[in-house]
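Running this now, will post back.
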Amino acid sequence: MRRKHRASKRYWKLLAVACAAAAYDDRAKSQRGLLIAKDDGVLAFFDNVLPNDSMCARDQVARRFRRYLADAGIRTLAAATYPQQGPDDGRSLAIVLDATESDEQEVSRVWERMLADLAVENERAEGSPPSDG
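Update: finished.
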């Protein structure tokens, strides 16, 4: 169930940074997943994989994922990466979503659908015929 939250954009941004930091701290155990911010009644998707070790690629994937989420009716409240400097700059991404625990499977399905679409596009770009999958 989606609802309007009254917290400020700054609040959601700070929550996104906190979720990205938590994901970074746990990066050895989990590449990606969902965090539940119970006090706020929202989910945060996190990803600790920096595509091709590129922040540019990370930004492109994050923007695309937010578009896929919007198409599924899931609003993005904020996004952030952590750490914000140093050799691991941007390693962990968190996207705070206007979604509840009951939306976990849908968020995961959206991520998988986006990855599948990216794989097909990459195959086409490389000149390979798409797999029948």
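The first helix runs from residue 9 to 25. More later if anyone needs it.
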